[in-house]
Amino acid sequence: VQLQASGGGLVQAGGSLRLSCVASGRIFSIDAVGWCRQAPGKERELVAAVISGGKRNYAHSVKGRFTISRDNANNMVYLQMTSLKPEDTAVYFCNARVTVYGGSVLVTDDYWGQGTLVTVSS
Question: Which of 6, 23, 43, 71 is deepest in the core (most CB within 10 A)?
Answer without folding.
Answer: 23
